[in-house]
Amino acid sequence: MTRSDQKNKELTATISDLHLSAGAKQSNGCLNPLEDFFRDQEFALLLRALKERADIEHVRFQLLGDIFDPQMVEDKGKFDVLPYESVCERQMRRIIEGHPIFFDALAEFLNDERVEVIILIGNHDFFLEWDGVKKCLLDRLGSNGQNLRFSYHEVHQGVWYTHGNIEPNNAILLTERYLLPGGKQRVHEPLLNYPYSSYLNAALTSRLRCVHSYIGRLKYHGYIIKEAATRNWRFMIQTLFLVLKNFFSHRFLAIWEVRRKARLGINLKILWWLVFGGDLETYAEKIIRVVPGIKAVVCGHDHKARAVKVKGGEFFNTGAWALLYDIYWDDPLGAPWGFRLLTRAFSYLSHLWHRPTFVKVELLPIVLARSGAGKESIGLYHFSSKEGKFIPWADASGTAPDTLETGMSSTLETGVDRRFYTA
Hints:
This protein has helices spanning 40-51, 85-98, 100-110, 131-141, 196-208, 222-230, 233-253, 264-276, 280-290, 340-350, and strands spanning 8-15, 56-64, 115-120, 148-151, 153-156, 159-162, 178-179, 191-192, 296-299, 306-310, 313-317, 325-328, 357-360, 365-372, 375-384, 389-392. The chain has 423 residues and is an alpha/beta fold. The chain has a 7-stranded mixed beta sheet with strand order 4-3-2-1-14-15-16. A 5-stranded mixed beta sheet has the order 5-6-9-11-10, with helices on one face. Strands 7-8 form a two-stranded antiparallel ribbon. A hairpin with a 4-residue loop joins strand 15 (375-384) and strand 16 (389-392). Helix 1 runs parallel beside helix 3 and helix 2 (85-98) runs parallel beside helix 4 (131-141). It is globular, with a radius of gyration of 22 Å.
């Protein structure tokens, strides 16, 4: 698409899965092993780049869920805490204190009358449902809420935006967002009805990550299972112990507190989903088929940025800005065509005794949708914080569109591997 001399009336920019917690450093000065967001400066540069676009009359900036991660924020020395409003407010304040650059940049961005910010709630930052948590955020940003709002899904210019937490263990029951006193659960005040996985993250991930730093930070976690089963038996035993302890304590021993969704029915649903469940592409096809006028679906959630064609339209995933690693193996020597199957089998078996190379993912995925000048377009881009520009990734048809800046190269930054975010 060539750049028009006319103004593009609106630019919708969408990112997701930042997973802010209590900051990079703990109170004692040591690094925080539970923090996943270290790109505060890049985030500030992104907002500056969006605001400085002279050819845009209105900037719609969407944070597509899991922006905050209170499950990785301790409260009074504990992670496995019940999400009462007062507890969630304290967690929000810890997150704000840990990321001054992030919140300063967002506050400055909101001062521009041309911008609108929409925070879509995901499974990790479900605590934004509380009015008290929203007030903490609005007070820090100095916003009266006129150009900042919260939502679970958005429909704009024929595009459906939602976080994508569709699995039974991650889904939010919008009809049962609170557990109230007098109900089946023992609560003395209203309590958020967190997804099952939120309790598991607080109870398990926070502990396991202190032992294995790649927990929750890999695009594919199969390696951790292989390693635990072949070399790191101590980690495997520790993990199994924590899983069983968590299940039985919440199922049978939680006498004085809420039984944390460990019912047999929920576990069977999760098991069914793991075996037979669909993916976000299937979900996108369903939305396009059922909801009139939808031509594209944008989600986050699984931390795998991609742009693909689906039946009836397009699907985009915003990936993640959180700390993320990819795994590369040293493949065995090539073999003639007739021995490819044997080569693959040997390659898989070699993973049992060879360690892979962990590569930090450096790309910053962002979905940009433009409307105006008689045209509409949407595509997946990489934000180059060094240049303050948007470099094309690939659109859903598999072709590289023109960049948003005249004269820019249509390739990725030098030294950045395109393999990092292939579908």
